[in-house]
Every structure is written in C-alpha cells, then in structure tokens.
Amino acid sequence: MGAAPPLKPSGVVTKSQVPAESEIIDRLREIASHPAARGLRDDAAIWQPPLGRELVLTHDTIARGVHYLPGADPSDIAWKLVATNLSDLAAMGAVPSGILIGLTLDREDGAWLERFAAGLARVLSEYDTALFGGDTVRAGATVLGCTAIGHVERGRALTRIGAQAGDDLYVSGTIGDAGLGLAALRGEAPADRFLERRHRLPMPRLALGQGLFAAGARAAMDVSDGLLIDADRLARASGVAAEIDLALIPLSKQAGLRLGEADSGPDGRLTAATSGDDYELLFAVPPAATSAVVALAGAARTPVTRIGGLSAGRGIRVLGMTGEPLAPGRLGFTHDAPSTGAR
Amino acid sequence: MGAAPPLKPSGVVTKSQVPAESEIIDRLREIASHPAARGLRDDAAIWQPPLGRELVLTHDTIARGVHYLPGADPSDIAWKLVATNLSDLAAMGAVPSGILIGLTLDREDGAWLERFAAGLARVLSEYDTALFGGDTVRAGATVLGCTAIGHVERGRALTRIGAQAGDDLYVSGTIGDAGLGLAALRGEAPADRFLERRHRLPMPRLALGQGLFAAGARAAMDVSDGLLIDADRLARASGVAAEIDLALIPLSKQAGLRLGEADSGPDGRLTAATSGDDYELLFAVPPAATSAVVALAGAARTPVTRIGGLSAGRGIRVLGMTGEPLAPGRLGFTHDAPSTGAR
C-alpha cells in the first residue's frame, strides 16, 4: 500500500503473476480506444447516443463453474461474455454501441488476463462495439458481468410480445450444436471441432435481427435456454400457443450425424431442441411477410427455417417426426438450472 | 427441472429458503416499474434517452468480504451499491436515469433478498432512478455489479481533466467520517451511530455536482479512495500540482472528537484525509467563481470547503497544522487495496 501505483506498460506483468487491479485496467485501457471511454481515466464514460434513437440495454453475468468450465480458454470466455449480450441486442434489432464490464477475478494470472483481453478485443472488433468502461475486483471467485448498450429506430425494437395467432415461427441457423459441443468438451462424447466451436464462440445474429422489423416480423427473442422453452416463453408473452414441428428443426450436418448415432428419431431432435446455448433468433412472421423474411435471410447471409406456428391458446405443443403430439419431460433450462451446467 | 417455472407472487419464498433465480427476478420486478424495464419480461430494456443529452455511464462491482463486511445489513449493501455508482454520476454533473444490476448470490436466503430489495427500492426512489434490468446468478460467492446511466448537457460533464494552476480546491461535506465509521463497525472503536451511518449509507452529492459546471468549476471527481490520493489523481490528470492544507479539511463534530481523542494534531487529520469511502465531491474552482460556488452550495444544501489549491507542477503537497510540509506514508487506497478492507 502507498501512493498511487505507477502506470506500467502492458507486458510488464509476468505471465505467472497475479496482476494487480491497476494492471488489469492498464490492459483494458489498450482496448478502450473509443473517445467515450476517455482512456478509462475517469470514473465514468461520456457518450453521445445517436440522435433520436431508442437505446437497448442488457446485462448478463457469468460465473466460473456455473456458466463455463474452469479449464475454458479465457479468450473464449471473453468472446462468449460479450457475444451473449450482443445476442440480446440482436433479438431486438439493435445496433451495438458499447459495453461496460465488471471483472471479479480470483487467482487468474497474467497469462489468463492476456488471453481474456485478446478475446475481448477480438469480439468487440468483430461486432464494431466499444469498451466504454468497467471495474475490476479481486475476490475468491471469478464472476464476469457485461452491460451492453445498443440503439434502434424509435418504436421498432422487436420483443417477445406481439406474435399473433396465424404467424409462422422461424429460427435462424441450426439448433443443438452448442449443447452437443458442450458434451464433447466435457468428454461425454467424441471431440468435434465444429460443435465445440459452436459452444465456445456463439455468433450473435445482428444483421438478421436488425432487418426483422422492416421485414414484417412481429416478435423475436434469442434462443439461449433451449428452443422449446424459449418458444414457450415467446408464445406466453404474446398470449398465444406455439406449435413446434420437430421434423422441421434445422440441424447441422455434424449434429445430425451425432444425434443419429446416439439415438435416431424424435429423441435426438428433442435433445437438440432442449439443449440451450444456441444464441440463434426465434421470431414470429405473418405469412404475408414470408418473402421479405427470406430475402432478408439472404442479405444477412443467415439461414432461417420455419419450425412451426402460433395459434390461439396458451403454452407449447410439440409434434414428433410423423406429426404425433409429444409430451417432452423438459423444455430446456430454467433460470434455476444453468444451461451450460459446468457444475 | 421441467418446464418454465410458474411465476410465484412474492412472499411465497420462505424467509429461511434460498430463493431461486426466478423468485429473485420476481422480487426485482416489483421495483422495475419504469416502462423501459418492460417488467423485466424481455432480455433487455428499451429506453428513450433525453433528446440531445450526453450519457454518462459507469460500472462498479462489490464483493462480500472485500467491499462490505459479511454481516452487513443487505438493505445497506443495496444502498451503497447504487449510491457509490450515483456518486460517479454526481462528480460529472449528471442526472441519474437508471441502473442495471448483476446479482451473483451464494446462499443468501429469502430474508436477505427481502432486505436487499427494500434497500434497492429505497435508494432508487430517493434519487429518482429506474431499475432498467439485470441478471441474477447462483454461485459460490456474493458479487454485486451495478451499471448506472445518467445524462448531462452536451459538453458540460466535469471530469478530472481541466483544473488549472491558480484554481482553488474544494471538497463537499465532511471528510473521514466513513473511515471512522468502518472502524466502529469492526469493533476497533466505540460505536457511533453518525459515523457508522456515514459508512453504511453514502449520499451522492447529485444536486451539488449538477450545478458545478455552470458555477464555473473546471474539474471534479468523487472522493472514494481517500481525499489525498484522489486529489493527487485529479491534479495529475489535469497536469498540475495540488496543495492540501490539513488544517482546512472539514471534519464533522463526531470525527473531530474521535480524532482528537485518538491522536490530536496532524495525525488525526491525516487519518481522515486518507481513510476513503467519503463519496464527497472534490473540485477545482478559479477564484473568480468563488461566489457562484458558494451560492450553489447554499442552493444544494451541501456545505463546501476550500482545502487548498492547484499550482504548476506535478503531484501533491500536504501542509500540516502550522503550514509545515508533511510527507504522508500513504495517500489512501489504491486499486489494489480495497478501501473498505473487510478482508
């Protein structure tokens, strides 16, 4: 303890040392190049939001041992921390502006910090998002918080509310890859680079999300806890019933092979539809908007698939491979059971 | 595990039970009455910022055992979590709009949650600030993050940069109370309700901060790590030297008595000026603006005191009770030594 610590250039922290909080901030300062961050030299950022736009604000916290495996690559942890927040912005059609992060670190060393900072810089650069600020704390646990801020044209943010009976239900990309990737990363299934990458590095569907309102979609959310449970949530929020046709759920080639090997038929697809961590977009589209949504998907280079529809009623119905109604034992992960269940 | 958990009305959680994450969100929902929060039913808030204003954004994280004593009243923890963030907004002259919180809880029970929620509701109501959103996680540690968002007239946010040689240095309120209160709370000194309250319930100086730019102040920050170290930081950021006259530092009656009992003379005042957690405002004022600042202090019902000045040079000089130069062994708390040192 003593006077203010001298600011050290990055690289002075030895890899095996536990960096001091001031050293962590110095490393983050290199990433915080947006003028709003003021070089992290004040206690707050000063940012001029785009004129007349609404802001979309979200916060997610992840903890070691709960949301990621203790041995995970810190670069991937940083990517996922930011990407999952940006996925919430994507679901509302927002353009990301910046993030603030809260890093509570345990005994992570200089090498960990360097990898984390590299992943953070990469994901922020990929999605043209600024590091506005943050805080860092040393404690007996690793807890990483991220607040993401984006903007959207006034009145044009999509939410879970607004879907109507008669709408089709669409999902982007493929479903179930991340869950299968987690099983592989845990050693419960053979390694698979594609599936593991889908778990480690989710890609927020920003370009698709930003076009959905104009294309005529009525409601949207991102799929984080499992396709079925999230479809149930969207339907309940909109006051309608969802019907999901398992045979229509888009699977990657790798997921199809793996699920086919493990258990062919509806069980494999149920696994995909309840495994969570997809970070794809789920959205409701009136039939008249089909061609606009297909055109958007092409422009955004993001495949979309109709997986069912919405009708009067409440809750979710799941149809098996031959159209028979199923009663799944579970729909996905709830707030009380982490979707990446590292514990 | 199963389908989406039924939403329970608050009060169903038994006090001694560990509430599930969905139950925590239900309790927070009662506080999140601002339309931007959308009842916490979507993954993000949608907020229209005041037209043409700049936003001020800050994030602070606190951890049990590091920033607060394990036995602290959860209501006080919530107050302090929010108030310290609002203090960062106050220093820049911003009007608070809303917060997002990230609650990582360990085994805190229903009674803890109820007290925390009550304190959160109280501090947000006191400072007319909305709960925009947040996230909650169960893990093996208690880590509480808060992102606060405020707004300020464009180009009129005060920062640490801008103080000039010849400016006077002022501080609001009284200094050292919180540090003495912490000692009392830890049982290292006799109990004192006033001093303990100053530690438990900091009052962000929003009204004062919001008037400082117009009154002619050139730089400001909040005093969180100790008056001397923060004065040193302000001076360094502005490229000038600070001179602090210990005899001028404003002490409360209670702090004066306690410091007089413990060690009279400069040592007691040094204790006050290095003990941290004051959450008062420190600001630089050209002599021509003195009367405007005094008028502002009256209007904001916040006493302010000239404690020294700024001159050409670098770093900080501390003058003792008879004007003799001192060389304090420490200036306050650095990022690497928590100011409320519960560990």
Task: Write up what this structure looks like.
2 copies of one chain form a homodimer. By secondary structure, the first copy, chain A, is α+β, with helices and mostly antiparallel strands. Chain A folds into 2 domains: about 20-150, 60s Ribosomal Protein L30, Chain: A, CATH 3.30.1330.10; about 170-325, PurM-like C-terminal domain (Phosphoribosyl-aminoimidazole Synthetase, Chain A, domain 2). Chain A is about 35% helix and about 25% strand. Chain A has 10 helices and 12 strands. Chain A has helices at about 20-30, 75-90, 110-125, 175-185, 195-200, 205-215, 225-240, 255-260, 265-275, 290-300; strands at about 45, 55-65, 95-105, 130-140, 145-150, 170, 220-225, 240-245, 280-285, 305-310, 315-320, 325. In chain A, strands 7-9-6-10-8-11-12 form a 7-stranded mixed beta sheet, sandwiched between helices. In chain A, strands 2-5-3-4 form a 4-stranded mixed beta sheet. In chain A, strand 11 (about 315-320) and strand 12 (about 325) form a beta hairpin. Chain A is globular. The two termini of chain A are about 35 Å apart. At the A-B interface, helix 1, strand 1, strand 2, helix 2 and strand 3 of A face helix 1, strand 1, strand 2, helix 2 and strand 3 of B. Chains A, B: This is Thiamine-monophosphate kinase. Chains A, B: InterPro entries: PurM-like_C_dom, PurM-like_N, ThiL-like. Chains A, B: Catalyzes the ATP-dependent phosphorylation of thiamine-monophosphate (TMP) to form thiamine-pyrophosphate (TPP), the active form of vitamin B1. Chains A, B: Keywords: ATP-binding, Kinase, Magnesium, Metal-binding, Nucleotide-binding, Thiamine biosynthesis, Transferase. Chains A, B: It catalyses: thiamine phosphate + ATP = thiamine diphosphate + ADP.
